[in-house]
Amino acid sequence: MLLLRRARAPPRLPPRRSLSRLLDRYGFVPPASLTPSPREPPRAAANSAAAKKRRAKKPPYRPPSSLDRGGRPPARSDLPFDFRFSYTESSPASKPIGLREPKYSPFGPGRLDRPWTGLCAPAVDATLRDVAADDPLPEAERGLEEARRRERERVLGEPLTPAERAFLVDKCQKNRTKRQINLGRDGLTHNMLNDIHNNWKSCEAVRVKCLGVPTVDMQNVSHQLEDKTGGLIIHRHGGQLILYRGRHYNPKKRPVIPLMLWKPAEPIYPRLIKTTIDGLTVEETKQMRKKGLHVPVLTKLAKNGYYATLVPMVRDAFLTDELVRIDCKGLPKSDYKKIGVKLRDLVPCILVSFDKEQIIVWRGKEDGSLQDQTQKSCPSVIDSDDASVKNETRDQEQTPSDWSSDESSGVSSSDEIPDDKPVISNPDPSRVI
């Protein structure tokens, strides 16, 4: 029985070594990438992933600093005038009584070879100026003025013919191009000069739109635009100007204009409204200010409007009334104070009050001493403007008779200040405290 049971038992199968006999025949060793790796604990995997992220993290981007010039030398500009933040809203004649902060240059430390005096970057070293001298304009500055005049005449070339002028004016209209330089409450700023030259690269003329405080004295705006850019205003209609670059303008030889990186702090100037008006007692000053608030309003100024007709309106009102009130509700406080300063110098008149967003001005006493003092100072200012008006007068003679005055000349619009009336450059806008 035992033998029968052993014979009936099934034969044993050989053990399974592998699915393939290649390992036994050739001794093949698989690479490490094919062998399964033991599973890592989740905490270790997270730590390794965090380590990879830390190793692969790039340094944060740092923009270039205005303090680091990269070893480059300071910029040098041959423009023959003092660099100011605003050329229409500031005047070298206005002297501050202090500075609000140290003399930090708005061009950046070491980026300009001119020193910053707190008001401007003079073209001639300030140490060469002699305050006690009879002639306040040194010989070096007179040489710069003469060089600027000759260069401007060379670039402008021959006067434009009426057909050329009409073609350029039509080419710069709103329905033909969107190129426009906006001149706002800060007036003609230094960085705006660079914008004008950038537009002159691809077009012969550019449109300038003027709104706000500078439009009180459009003659000053026109003069500063021509003087600082070297161009010529060939058309003016209201607050819109067309500035022509000249026949011989070369964009590749444009002047170097270093940009201001920030707006400089305004200096401190004397107060505009004094406790007592000159020539009046304390009681008379109080009564005049109370009376001024009840005077009928001459006009109401709109925000960012066009104010070129304001000076003639005030002059005409002074023929019948001694006090004039102008409503400035809605305007920023600094704006209507700047307007008051312009009225004081252009009309001329005496500032009485800025209370309740109103500009109240007084024409002065009947003896006319204020008008006489202003007329004495006018010839010197008018003589300095003759050079800029000479080219425009010559161009106006060439315009056909069927053109309107606004379309034929750059500054011959009806709202322009006549030549026989005093023209005084605007004071510094920071005069307003």
TrEMBL record:
Q: Where is the composition biased (Basic and acidic residues)?
A: 387-397
The listed locations are: Plastid, Chloroplast stroma
| Any one of the GO BP annotations | Group II intron splicing
The CRM domain extends over 158-256, 278-374
Low complexity bias: where? 401-415
Q: Could you state a single Gene Ontology molecular function term?
A: RNA binding
- Top-level taxon: Eukaryota
Comp. bias intervals (Basic residues): 1-19, 51-60
| PANTHER family tied to this protein | CRS2-ASSOCIATED FACTOR 1, CHLOROPLASTIC (PTHR46247), CRS2-ASSOCIATED FACTOR 1, MITOCHONDRIAL (PTHR46247:SF2)
Please give the name of this protein: CRM domain-containing protein
Q: What high-level taxonomic lineage is stated for the organism?
A: Eukaryota, Viridiplantae, Streptophyta, Embryophyta, Tracheophyta
